[in-house]
Amino acid sequence: MHIRFGVVSDPHIAIPSTVWDHPSRFHLGEVSIPALEQVLQHFAQLELDFLLLPGDLTQHGEPENHAWLAERLSQLPFPAYVVPGNHDVPHLLADGRSIGLADFPHYYRAFGYEDEQALDYSRVLLPGVRLIGLNSNDFDAQGHLVGGLQPEQLTWLEQELVAAGEDLVLLMVHHNVVEHLRGQSLHSWGQRYMLRNASQLRRLLQTYGVQLVFTGHLHMQHIAQRNRVYDITTGSLVSFPHPYRVIDIQSKPSDPEAGIQVNIESYRVTSLPDWPHLQEFSREWMGQRSQPLMVKFLTSSPFHLPLEQAEALAPQLRYFWAELAAGDPELHFPQFPQPAGRFLQRFSRSFRCPPDNCAQLHLQPRRKLSRV
């Protein structure tokens, strides 16, 4: 087996007439289409087998943006597969501005959703390779969107995994399955990026030997691992550092016990015709808008700093989120109050394994894990 595929997450497509301008927005919606076009041009040179897009396909679920993306994907020389993100279906029902959850499969029938009545799918992509796409958008009694899987989804997933005979099963879901930030489950702002029932999903994946999960939502380059499950989250194409990935997977049929080798390469959109210094501009854009996020970060667990102190310290963290978003950060806070400074420093690359941007993973043969 030898496959190569691309990953583009959170492109937040916005045709010019729909670009949402807000003074505190992190997204550069203006670059969504030219950035995607540049990435697709690169992919066209690589002879990819397929493309994965793990959600937040559109700016705010606008019908015209979904229609634009579906049409563009239909022109690719390789198949593409998608799942919905929180921005794609911000409300359970269509509200005139955005589509409803049940509408999503209609737009993406050619990209995984052959059954327009189902929000999850399971497809054999190539001999020995299966992709399972899950919808992780759930709505509570008040109509608020939360990240989670319904019990019937987990039941369906287990049935699919029991029946799957492929050597490699890939899972794609928008919300994170493994923590990507230290103490993420302790922060209200960190929790919103994870599945509420991530532990249940991980147990299923471990039981049936699914080791590669592709997620988005967090707008950060990071690879997290827990109990043989790798959660590969890819940063947003419309925020610093405008990354995307190419995944190369190989196994030797003559030696199945050798396992599966995974090579991950990351790239960035560094400039565009109207944005010659995109990286510098985008990093500064993020830094200028980081103060409220950093204040909330410092006043939450495990810091619990008083608001006044958090507001005074937050400027020192102006580029903290940009460094995390870029992946493989090198962070030093010698002047920061301790032990907070030591905690922040542990977000550095030296404490991470594997690396976030370019990594080599070794997967165990699935048939052994399926007997756990």
Task: Summarize the entry for a quick read.
By secondary structure, the protein is of the alpha/beta class.
Considering DSSP H and I runs of 4 or more, what fraction of the residues is helical?
A: 25-40%
The CATH class of the largest domain is Alpha Beta
Strand order of the largest sheet: 3-2-1-12-13-14
CATH superfamily of the largest domain: Metallo-dependent phosphatases
Question: Mind telling me the C-alpha Rg?
Answer: 20 Å
Oligomer: single chain
Overall SS class: alpha/beta
Shape: globular
Instruction: Report the count of strand segments.
Output: 14
The percentage of residues in β strands lies in 15-25%
CATH topology (fold) name of the largest domain: Purple Acid Phosphatase, chain A, domain 2
- The helix tally amounts to 12
How far apart the termini lie comes to: 24 Å
Catalogue the unreliable spans.
368-372
Quick one: biggest sheet?
6 strands, mixed
Mean pLDDT: 93
Proper CATH architecture of the largest domain: 4-Layer Sandwich
N-to-C order of helices and strands: EHEHEHEEEEHEHHEEEEEHHHHHEH
| Tally of discrete structural domains | 2
Structure report:
This protein is α/β, with parallel strands linked by helices. It folds into 2 domains: 2-271 and 354-369, 4-Layer Sandwich (Purple Acid Phosphatase, chain A, domain 2); 279-351, no CATH class. Helix content is 27%, strand content 20%. A hairpin with an 8-residue loop joins strand 12 (243-251) and strand 13 (260-268). Helix 8 packs across helix 9. It starts with a strand and ends with a helix. Keywords: Hydrolase, Iron, Metal-binding. This is Metallophosphoesterase. Pfam families: Metallophos (PF00149).
